[in-house]
Specification:
- The structure is a single chain.
- By secondary structure, the protein is α/β, with parallel strands linked by helices.
- Helices cover about 35% and strands about 10% of the residues.
- A 4-stranded parallel β-sheet has the order 1-4-2-3, covered by helices on one side.
- Helix 1 runs antiparallel to helix 2.
Length: about 130
């Protein structure tokens, strides 16, 4: 049983399970009824998305130092009690079921999902590498 970290909108892996969108906003121009069939997500979980301010910071990051500043700030947001418990829950669920989490960004290395991957790993989650 594992968590896959995926780009939303990409084709699903046959054993991916439920796809969870950890994004601030739903996909633009896509009817709500087509979120799952269009490989976006089955469940929207914006609680694990960076704040709107941090999304802008991440998109503007041009250097490794700017990305590290974003990562520290996003990790701080995820230390809030609610988000911390949600990460603990996902880590625990990863040992009993298949599911995925994702974002729209093409490059995972320059996306909050890379930080989510690390946070879940730190909590003992079973992840597909």
């Amino acid at each position: 049983m594992t968590i896959r970290v995926v780009q939303l909108g990409s084709p699903r892996h046959p054993q991916e399970g439920t796809r969870i969108g950890t994004v601030r906003r739903p996909p633009r121009g896509v009817p709500k009824e087509a979120f799952a069939s269009g490989d976006w997500y089955d469940v929207w979980f914006p609680n694990l998305a960076p704040s709107a301010e941090l999304v802008k910071q991440a998109q503007a990051a041009q250097s490794a130092a700017e990305w590290q500043t974003f990562e520290r700030a996003y990790r701080a947001e995820m230390k809030a009690p609610e988000q911390s418990r949600e990460l603990d829950l996902l880590a625990a669920l990863s040992h009993g079921s298949h599911f995925s989490i994702g974002c729209y960004c093409q490059d995972e290395a320059h996306c909050h999902r890379s930080v989510l991957r690390a946070l879940l790993r730190e909590r003992g989650a079973a992840l597909v590498e």
